[in-house]
Amino acid sequence: MARLTGERPLPGATPDSLLAFHAAGYREVRDRLGSGRVLDVGCGVGEETAVLAAPGRTVVGLDLDATTAVDAARALAQRGLRFAAMDGAALGIRDGSIDAVCSSHIIEHFFAPERHVAELARVCADPGRVYVITPNRPADFENPFHVHPFEPPELASLLRLFFHDVEVLGIDGSPEARADFARRRASGERILKLDPLRIRQRIPRAWYVWSYERMLPSVYRALGPATTGIGSGIDHSHFFLTDRIEPTTPGLFAIAARPRV
């Protein structure tokens, strides 16, 4: 069973609003899918990948971690889903063979995100669609796993290097969701004040990640559900797409088509 590290959301261990934020992105992808082959790159434990399944679709989830992919396959094989372990910057998939590709909250994890986008374009059929979901940099709270967050113009510019058609929308929240995000951010900022010299950013990144992974569960337990938002009841219906992207808009939802490769 996957453990909470802060790298991927886990039901029951991650704040409801963050789970809902991810679920809303998958909902928007699902509502735009037709029949054919669907690839979910960075699928994690696969629960969100299952949302994409429907008659007439072949859905394959990919994760960098082999153990996670195997666990997802065991848990979700009965739903007709397939899983494999692959690097999102080096996909073992034929050129132009996928009708729709979902890249949800993975592009910000790459030191060289252009390699990931190049692979998305390479495997995407024409006609086909690629959906890229990622935090909006100004609203993204410090996370050592997020090494390359994007603002809307930056994401659009990168995608246009590999696709002719690109649209970048925002994923925004209801007042309740925004308040939950703001409350958790304020709590996180208070904790970061315990490191006024920013030692966490001076030590090797691997040390910071190691510490973050082990401290996060303890911090969540110490803060309790009222502060962390675990059990708040916020779900995907509290999030929506918008063409008005503000610094406080939590996420970006990009649609790319007509690959240049």
Q: Tell me the span between the first and last alpha carbons.
A: 39 Å
What number is the mean pLDDT? 90
Helix/strand order = HEEHEEHEHEHHHEE
What is the level 1 CATH name of the domain at 16-174 and 237-259? Alpha Beta
Q: Figure out the total of helices.
A: 7
Percentage of residues in DSSP E strands: 15-25%
CATH architecture descriptor of the domain at 16-174 and 237-259: 3-Layer(aba) Sandwich
Widest sheet: strand order?
Answer: 3-2-1-4-5-8-6-7
- In percent, how helical is the residue content? 25-40%
Radius of gyration: 18 Å
Structural class determined from secondary elements: alpha/beta
Shape: globular
The CATH topology annotation of the domain at 16-174 and 237-259 reads as Rossmann fold
Low-confidence stretches: none
Question: How would you characterize this protein structure?
Answer:
- With 261 residues, the chain is of the alpha/beta class.
- It has a domain at 16-174 and 237-259: Rossmann fold.
- Helix content is 33%, strand content 23%.
- The protein has seven helices and eight strands, in the order αββαββαβαβαααββ.
- It has an eight-stranded mixed beta sheet.
- It is globular, with a radius of gyration of 18 Å.
- The chain starts with 15 loop residues before the first helix and ends with a strand.
- The mean pLDDT is 90.
